C-alpha cells in the first residue's frame, strides 16, 4: 500500500511502516503535538509513518459514549496534520457517504472490522481512488479476507492493505492468531493492529477494557512473523482519552518500543 503514497517518508528503508495516533481527534493542538513527536521518532528510525485519528466513532458501547468534536472540524484537523508535516493521514469511515467526504481530507480510508463485509461501503471507498485498509472482522478467518480485498480490486482500486486486530475469544477477550499474517499477505500487505488486538470488549460497565501491558509482546511477535506494518493508538495520557484509553500506549513509551521493534525487523531481514 505505501508504494502508492507519494508523501510517505523512508519508503525504501526496508523497515516496517507505522500507523499511529490517537483513537479519535480530540482537538487540533493535541493532534499536532502527537504527530510532531511521532514524526521525530519515525525519522530517527527511518520508519514510514501514517498519522491516524478517527473523525467520528460510530461503534460505541453506550449512547452517551463520545463520538466526535464535529465531523468536518476533525477532518480539517487531519488535513492540517498532513500538510504541516507532509505525511499521509488515515481515518475510519462507517457510511457510504463518508467515503467521498473523508477522501477530500485524508490519504487512506480505513474500513472498520464490523463493516468489512459491507460490499457497498467497500465499493464506495474503492471508487475514491484512495488507499483502502480493511480491518479483518473479529469473526472472520484469514482466508476470508481475500474476498474483501477482491471487492476493492474489482472496483478498479489495487491500493489495499489488511489490518489484523484479533479474533473473538469468548465474549470479553480477543486473541491474535499469528498464523493468519502470512496467509493474508498472499492477498495484500498486512498490518497488525497491536492496541485493538488487546481490547477486552463487552465489559459490564459498558466501557471497553484492555491489556496495554502486552503491547510490546504483541508488536514484537507481529514483526517477527512478517507483518508489513503496525497500527498503534497512542495518547499523552490514556487515562483521560475520550475513546479507547484502556488499550492505548502512552506516547512517552512509543520511542523505546520503536527502537526495539526496529532491531527485531533487522534481525529477520
TrEMBL record:
Residues 10-267 form the DAHP synthetase I/KDSA domain. Its EC number is 2.5.1.55. The keyword Coiled coil does not apply. Its main location: cytoplasm. Pfam families: DAHP_synth_1 (PF00793). One of its GO terms (cellular component) is cytoplasm. Pathway: Bacterial outer membrane biogenesis; lipopolysaccharide biosynthesis; Carbohydrate biosynthesis; 3-deoxy-D-manno-octulosonate biosynthesis; 3-deoxy-D-manno-octulosonate from D-ribulose 5-phosphate: step 2/3. One of its GO terms (biological process) is lipopolysaccharide biosynthetic process. Gene3D superfamilies: Aldolase class I. InterPro entries: Aldolase_TIM (IPR013785), DAHP1/KDSA (IPR006218), KDO8P_synthase (IPR006269). Keywords: Cytoplasm, Transferase. It is found in: Cytoplasm. It is an enzyme of class 2 (transferase). It catalyses: D-arabinose 5-phosphate + phosphoenolpyruvate + H2O = 3-deoxy-alpha-D-manno-2-octulosonate-8-phosphate + phosphate. One of its GO terms (molecular function) is 3-deoxy-8-phosphooctulonate synthase activity. PANTHER family: PHOSPHO-2-DEHYDRO-3-DEOXYHEPTONATE ALDOLASE. NCBIfam families: KDO8P_synth, PRK05198.1. Belongs to the KdsA family. This is 3-deoxy-8-phosphooctulonate synthase. The gene is kdsA.
Amino acid at each position: 500500500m505505501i508504494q502508492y503514497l507519494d508523501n510517505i517518508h523512508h519508503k525504501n528503508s526496508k523497515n516496517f511502516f507505522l500507523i499511529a495516533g490517537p483513537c479519535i481527534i480530540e482537538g487540533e493542538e493535541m493532534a499536532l503535538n502527537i504527530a510532531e513527536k511521532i514524526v521525530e521518532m519515525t525519522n530517527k528510525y527511518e520508519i514510514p509513518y501514517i498519522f491516524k485519528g478517527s473523525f467520528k466513532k460510530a461503534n460505541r458501547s453506550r449512547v452517551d459514549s463520545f463520538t466526535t468534536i464535529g465531523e468536518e472540524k476533525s477532518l480539517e484537523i487531519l488535513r492540517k496534520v498532513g500538510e504541516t508535516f507532509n505525511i499521509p493521514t488515515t481515518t475510519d469511515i462507517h457510511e457510504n457517504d463518508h467515503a467521498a467526504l473523508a477522501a477530500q481530507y485524508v490519504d487512506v480510508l480505513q474500513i472498520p472490522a464490523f463493516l468489512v463485509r459491507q460490499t457497498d461501503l467497500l465499493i464506495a471507498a474503492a471508487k475514491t481512488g484512495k488507499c483502502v485498509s480493511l480491518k479483518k472482522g473479529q469473526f472472520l478467518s484469514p482466508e476470508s479476507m481475500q474476498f474483501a480485498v477482491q471487492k476493492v480490486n474489482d472496483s478498479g482500486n489495487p491500493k489495499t492493505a489488511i489490518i489484523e486486530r484479533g479474533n473473538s475469544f469468548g465474549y470479553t477477550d480477543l486473541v491474535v492468531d499469528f498464523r493468519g499474517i502470512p496467509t493474508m499477505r498472499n492477498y495484500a500487505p498486512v498490518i497488525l493492529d497491536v492496541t485493538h488486538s488487546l481490547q477486552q470488549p463487552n465489559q459490564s460497565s459498558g466501557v471497553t477494557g484492555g491489556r496495554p501491558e502486552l503491547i510490546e509482546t504483541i508488536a514484537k511477535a507481529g514483526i517477527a512473523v512478517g507483518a508489513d506494518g503496525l497500527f498503534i493508538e497512542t495518547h499523552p495520557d490514556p487515562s483521560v482519552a475520550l475513546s479507547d484509553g484502556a488499550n492505548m500506549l502512552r506516547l512517552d513509551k512509543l520511542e523505546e518500543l520503536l527502537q526495539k521493534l526496529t532491531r527485531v525487523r533487522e534481525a529477520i531481514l
